């Protein structure tokens, strides 16, 4: 349930409403927008229905929210959320580019990639240190050594870094190094990990599960938000369908749907979304045209030698070309390099 306050509602009236509701065990989330001030209420449905909220002075109207997600919903928070990471803002209308290799493999590989991201005008460096691989025999990542190398690359280039955290036991370690935690598709419903991340204040990019509906995805975001961490970024990375020409089907309709349902920023990952380097540039352009707040793209100095996801990785030159392309389309954020 949400309360929309009258434009001239006083602080005393607002405080009175909040105190009265909290006394009945209702959680109240205050959100002041440009046009409206809203109180989002979370509590037992029966309790909420029994309180004559409409009768409080200062209340313009009461709206029932039918979606199961509350804190993630746009009705609770009409203004888009902006997430700040070392001076870069995600969700302010100017798309950001996150790029880097699938896995951190060596010092030379990550530093070379980081310099290429910086030079092409990218904003954030990615690199996996703990890798969720389908096969236990595949390269599993360098672990903490990979995080140290990412931190060194940040030191050299000034680019903030993002890397995946795979299990709750490693959260403190990963959070110590990275600027943004990545919660991978396979862990989208790892509720223990979601809650633990929710108890930190670290920005987190929550990837859509392999077969998750948009509602399930937003409910996972709700787990993080409801523990107190407001810094959630969503990432569409393709879903399982019957199509086999691509590794996944990149669901670009998720972008306007998320924009409609939620205030959280959304990034699109056309690399995992297609699995094929040839399709990464067109789907990047399409994602930006659909209104995405940014992209995450895998790149590699030598894709043919990559220890993971070589087929979908752009060369450093391809990446520079993509950035030129986006700049020529006058995409804000990519245009003044
Ligand atoms: C990745 O970003 O390297 C990755 C493993 O992504 P996803 O969780 O989307 O498969
Ligand atoms: Mn990958």
TrEMBL record:
- InterPro entries in alphabetical order: Aldolase_TIM (IPR013785), Class-I_DAHP_synthase (IPR052899), DAHP1/KDSA (IPR006218), DAHP_snth_FXD (IPR041071), DAHP_syn_2 (IPR006268)
Q: Quick check: keyword Ion transport in the entry?
A: no
Q: Which SUPFAM superfamilies match?
A: Aldolase
Q: Keyword set for this entry?
A: Transferase
Biological process (GO) annotations held by this record are: aromatic amino acid family biosynthetic process
> A GO molecular function for this record?
aldehyde-lyase activity
Residue ranges of domain DAHP synthetase I/KDSA in the record:
87-320
Residue span, DAHP synthase ferredoxin-like domain: 1-67
State what protein this is by name: 3-deoxy-D-arabinoheptulosonate-7-phosphate synthase
């Amino acid at each position: 349930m949400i309360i929309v306050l009258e434009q001239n509602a006083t602080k005393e009236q607002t405080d009175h409403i909040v105190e009265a509701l909290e006394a009945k065990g209702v959680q109240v989330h205050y959100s002041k927008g440009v046009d409206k001030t809203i109180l989002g209420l979370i509590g037992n449905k029966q309790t909420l229905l029994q309180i004559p909220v409409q009768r409080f002075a200062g209340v313009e109207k009461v709206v029932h929210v039918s979606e199961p997600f509350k804190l993630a919903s746009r009705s609770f928070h009409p203004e888009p959320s902006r997430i700040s990471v070392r001076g870069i803002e995600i969700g302010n209308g100017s798309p950001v580019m996150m790029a880097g290799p699938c896995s951190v493999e060596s010092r030379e590989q990550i530093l070379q990639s980081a310099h290429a991201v910086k030079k092409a005008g990218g904003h954030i460096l990615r690199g996996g240190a703990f890798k969720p691989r389908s096969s236990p025999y595949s390269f599993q990542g360098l672990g903490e050594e990979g995080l140290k190398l990412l931190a060194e690359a940040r030191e050299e280039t000034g680019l903030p870094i993002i890397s995946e955290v795979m299990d709750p036991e490693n959260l403190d370690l990963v959070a110590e190094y990275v600027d943004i935690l990545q919660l991978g598709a396979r862990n989208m419903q790892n509720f223990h990990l979601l809650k633990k991340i929710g108890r930190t204040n670290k920005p987190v990019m929550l990837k859509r599960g392999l077969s998750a509906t948009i509602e399930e995805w937003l409910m996972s975001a709700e787990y993080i938000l409801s523990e107190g961490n407001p810094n959630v970024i969503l990432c569409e990375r393709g879903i399982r369908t019957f199509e086999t020409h691509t590794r996944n089907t990149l669901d670009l309709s998720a972008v306007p749907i998320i924009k409609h349902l939620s205030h959280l920023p959304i990034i699109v990952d056309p690399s995992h979304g297609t699995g094929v380097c040839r399709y990464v540039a067109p789907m990047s352009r399409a994602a930006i045209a659909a209104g995405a707040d940014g992209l995450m793209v895998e790149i590699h100095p030598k894709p043919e030698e990559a220890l993971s996801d070589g087929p979908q990785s752009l060369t450093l030159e391809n990446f520079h070309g993509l950035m030129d392309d986006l700049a020529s389309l006058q995409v804000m954020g990519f245009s003044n390099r």
